[in-house]
Amino acid sequence: MAIDETIRQQALDWALRAGDPQFEEWEAFTSWLEADPAHGQAYDAVAAAVADAADLVAGAGPANDDDLGAVQSEEASLRSSRRRWLGGAIAASLALVGAFTLWQANSRDLYRIDVAPGAIRTVALDPGTRIDLGGDTAIELDRDDPRYARLEKGQALFTIRHDDAHPFRLKVGEDTLVDVGTVFDVRHRGEEMSVAVSEGAVQFNPDDQNQRVSPGQILRRNGQDGRITLEAIAPDRVGEWREGRLTFSDASLGQVAADLTSSTGIAFDAAPGASLVSVSGSLRLAPIRKDPRALGALLGLDVRREGDRWIIGER
User: Fold this and answer.
1) How many CA atoms lie within 13 A of 278 on its CB side?
2) Is 38 helix (H, G, I), strand (E, B) or coil?
3) Does 68 map to a domain?
4) Each residue's pLDDT tens digit, 146-163
5) What tens digit of pLDDT does each residue of 1-51 get?
6) For 315, which of 72, 90, 181, 237 is 20 to 30 Å away at the CA?
7) Which pTM does this prediction carry?
8) What are the distances in angstroms from CA 135 to CA 53, 143, 145, 241, 309?
């Protein structure tokens, strides 16, 4: 079983802390090991790397060490030299462990799926788990671990079979989402991210904010200041884009244009100076695919064509 990146980082942290002679958190450490078999597996791998690194640097001690005590007057400087060497050995050990951890993190057998604007694709993973990918979406999956994915950009609806022993983990930029028996929709455009849940629950960044997102809730992270908000959403709106519908609530024209472009494959842009104007409404995509000017009547906007793009703005 592949070791989750978050567990691996926790194991490295425990390994470094437990190596401190002043370490006293043995009860917490034991509880962490017993919480999940994967914890022990990860700790064993990291501990082995630490031991190998320490052996390597110990075998490369200071040159001419047998002659260090030959001259009485140089003992003080030699002690200082040894302290510097020990510090270098520790630094080298940590560097080797860091390299080991980086190698492990990058050892996933990943493959990428890209979906063109206007298209939809469904990917089946393990039994009971599938991902519906919206237009202009890119996702990375692991050939060896169907319980891991990284959403590079776009929008995807996840229907996940929950497994307490191996929960599904989704990386979205620097954020981590962990399922709790879940149907949830994730949108990732630029620096913005949102996750909406219709069934089960999702834990957002369990090792940081550890925010639970329950059915009928949507969590948004602002890309500019990192602010996180949790709001209500009708469960039947989660993943509605699969059925050819989009709903906007105080959405900027910039977001409306981006979502329409991704969903229809037709190029939309917000008019200059109007990207922050907000609109609300629900619309079917089929009429817009036939005639983009239909958007004007549906959302009360000005829609005009400029070359190969459609410009939307206030009336």
Assistant:
1) 5
2) helix
3) no
4) 999 999 999 999 999 988
5) 455 667 877 878 777 777 666 677 777 777 878 888 788 777 777 776 666
6) 237
7) 0.67
8) 47, 23, 25, 10, 17
- pLDDT digits over 288-312, tens only? 999 999 999 989 999 999 999 999 9
Which amino acid belongs to residue 131?
I
> Which residue range forms the structural domain that includes residue 286?
244-314
- Among 213, 237, 261, the domain boundary falls at 237
Cα separation of the two ends of the chain: 57
Residue 40 in domain: yes
Question: What's the confidence (pLDDT) of residue 302?
Answer: 94
Maximum CA pair distance of the chain?
94
With a cut of 50, say whether residue 172 has pLDDT above it: yes
Whose CA is closest to 101, among 214, 197, 3, 26?
3
> Which residues are CB-neighbours of 268 under 8 A, at least 6 positions away?
256, 257, 258, 260, 261, 292, 309, 310, 311, 312
pLDDT the model gives residue 46: 74
What total number of domains does the chain contain?
3
User: Which helix (H) or strand (E) is 11 found in, with range?
Assistant: helix 5-18
The residue ranges of DSSP E strands in the chain, in sequence order, are 110-115, 121-124, 130-133, 137-142, 148-159, 169-172, 175-179, 183-189, 192-199, 202-204, 211-213, 217-221, 228-232, 245-252, 268-270, 278-284, 301-306, 309-314
